[in-house]
Task: inverse folding
């Protein structure tokens, strides 16, 4: 999966596309961590507006990146999640760990 | 009214993570003629993905030689029954495994919500497991056509 991103000032936004299951999460995890660590932003945004599917493996990926962002002193938020993905995030209590709009 | 089986299909595939999407495509194809809402379809894809991922990650511990069997049945009263089974390591304590946020694999960022999601999105969830023999997860949903 190609990982698109844009950098604006101290914010890096990653655009997660397609279906994020356990299989996709394995590759994305390494790629995100590599870029987050290398770029060292103050804010990391995961844009899910082009994400069609996300299960608990996808949620694990997101929560894991919260911890990675914290290790470099950055915050992480999620944006653009559709109604079905929001339902998963809410069901799993993700609101306690990250901002999502 | 007596419940009769209208349609059924079964598929068996390798316990490889690439096949998680295959399981969702299989379910989508099976329910396509039923005219479900996007919401209902998304729920079914999610729960099957959770069950299949459990087989790959926990039952077979990423051993690709494992096999996963997915069976779907649709009945005259609108009941959809999906069964995901493996011959993996089995679950020692099913009750504990079904508790939200319980996981034996925190290291790989498993959040322990698979069974909780299945339970929430479906009307009934049954987990039968024997250590060393495998696990069978049966999920039922009463479908109302969109």
Result:
């Amino acid at each position: 999966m190609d990982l698109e991103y844009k950098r604006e000032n101290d914010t890096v936004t990653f655009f997660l596309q397609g279906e994020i299951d356990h299989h996709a999460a394995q590759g994305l995890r390494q790629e995100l961590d590599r870029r987050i660590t290398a770029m060292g932003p103050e804010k990391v945004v995961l844009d899910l507006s082009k994400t069609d599917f996300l299960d608990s493996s996808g949620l694990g990926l997101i929560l894991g990146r919260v911890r990675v962002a914290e290790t470099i002193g950055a915050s992480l938020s999620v944006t653009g999640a559709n109604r079905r993905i929001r339902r998963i995030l809410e069901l799993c209590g993700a609101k306690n760990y990250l901002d999502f709009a | 009214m007596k419940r009769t089986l209208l349609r059924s299909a079964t598929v068996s595939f390798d316990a490889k993570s690439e096949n998680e999407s295959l399981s969702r495509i299989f379910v989508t194809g099976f329910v396509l003629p039923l005219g479900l809402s996007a919401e209902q379809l998304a729920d079914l894809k999610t729960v099957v993905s959770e069950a299949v991922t459990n087989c790959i990650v926990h039952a077979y511990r990423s051993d690709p030689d494992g096999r996963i069997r997915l069976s779907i049945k649709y009945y005259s009263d609108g009941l959809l029954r999906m069964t995901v089974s493996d011959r993996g390591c089995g679950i020692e304590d099913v009750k504990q495994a079904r508790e939200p946020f319980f996981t034996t694999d925190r290291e790989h960022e498993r959040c322990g919500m698979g069974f909780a999601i299945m339970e929430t999105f479906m009307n009934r969830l049954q987990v039968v497991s024997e250590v060393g023999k495998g696990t069978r997860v049966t999920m039922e949903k009463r479908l109302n056509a969109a």
In short: The helical segments of chain B are 19-31, 38-59, 94-97, 114-121. Chain B touches chain A at residues 17-18, 20-21, 24, 38-39, 42, 45-46, 49-50, 53, 56-57, 108-111, 113-114, 116-117, 120 (CB under 8 Å). The mean pLDDT of chain B is 91. Residues 38-59 of chain B form the longest helix (22 residues).
